[in-house]
Amino acid sequence: MKIVSVEAKAYRLPLAEPWISAKYRITHHELVRTLITTDTGLVGTGWCTTIGVGGLAISTLVNAYLALLLKGEDALNNERIWEQLWQDLHFAGPSGLSTLAIATIDIALWDLRAQYARLPLWQLLGGMRETVPVYASAVNLHLTEDELLAQVERQLSEGYSVFKLKIGRKDSAEDVARVRAVRQLIGDQRTLMLDANQRWSAGDAVRLCRELSAFNPAWIEEPILSDDIAGHAHVRNAGGVPVAIGEQLGNRFDFWNYVRAEAADILQPNVWKVGGITEWLKIAHMAQVANLSIAPHNALELSAHLVAAVPNATMVENIEGGNLADFGIVQKAPEVHNATIILPHTPGHGIVFDEDALAQHLLPEGAPVVRELTTHAGL
Predict the structure, then answer these.
(1) Domain 122-349 belongs to what architecture?
(2) Which of 49, 108, 175, 248 has the greatest number of beta carbons closer than 10 A?
(3) What pLDDT score was predicted for residue 204?
(4) 128, 138, 106: which is closest to 274 by C-alpha?
(5) Active-site residue flag, 164
(6) Considering 142, 297, 349, 376, which one is annotated as catalytic?
(7) pLDDT at res. 19
(8) Taking the alpha carbons of 264, 265, 269, 274 in that order, is the dihedral positive or negative?
């Protein structure tokens, strides 16, 4: 199955409402979609998203540099292709834009492989389970306490029993009050996770985790700067709350450095950030050897396949307003019913984009992008 052509395009997708966390105010996502056509007539689809910047750089990396390396290659040689692309881009950076670009290709290749095998992607990857649980997530730090509780009440009515709450306000007493209020609303039998988006110093994280531990959080996500492995180990050892990390990490070596430093309890690889499915699986299996759970960050449509594939993956994140269906750009994608996704049995990953809807958001190559993405530290 020889590769005939590779083409990537970038799109800018407006959020229905801005997302505000302890780190950013986000108004748009940028999506890069890569199509790989083979001499069999099969076409593989891969994509990634970023929070408002980088889409044109990623599509240019694919079209101007990587596409030429792929033409004529057998599309079934996933490992060889991944390694070649990663080594080719390594000097430019072993993660970041490099792995985001590789991810769009790698996901398309796995889509092709599953189509060729006439298997759904989750089954080709391992077939551990046919349904996966989903937890409710939202970028909601800016909501008032009453608005936050109304959001959680709606999520409860939709069947969710696991919730992730943004924290990291300037006044930590507000964080404590909001966590207390949500815990009282959902009760003691449901699961609550907390996400600080790298807001604190290690010392502050330990102090606040000790205070927040009274509300029995299942984890504290990114309590401090993700570059600080030793700091996360300190928070994990002294804070009294399990530590989750991975949203900002870019490859298996980043994750291994956390594992060997005993700095995390739950790993959260993002399939786009780590360079696609090939690398994501390595991280998941490494975590299994270390007896750690995997709870992938974002990418609901692909994460559902990944969680269904491996035994140590736990659940899929559904970030309110951030999935492909929320942007109105897909004809077909996994649907969440009663906090569960039932995996499809159609070959491949099963995502079908709405070409007309997607075309309305195309970013022309070389065009300057007027955008609003600001560091947010005022809450």
Answers:
(1) Alpha-Beta Barrel (3.20)
(2) 108
(3) 97
(4) 106
(5) no
(6) 297
(7) 85
(8) positive
pLDDT (0 to 100) of residue 372:
63
Topology of domain 3-118+356-375, per CATH?
Enolase-like; domain 1 (3.30.390)
Point out the residues of the chain with pLDDT beneath 50: none
Domain chopping of the chain, boundaries: 3-118+356-375, 122-349
Q: Give the model's pLDDT for residue 86.
A: 97
Which pLDDT score, from 0 to 100, does residue 91 have? 95
* Residues in the chain, overall count: 379
Active site residue 166: yes
pTM of the model: 0.96
pLDDT at 374: 55
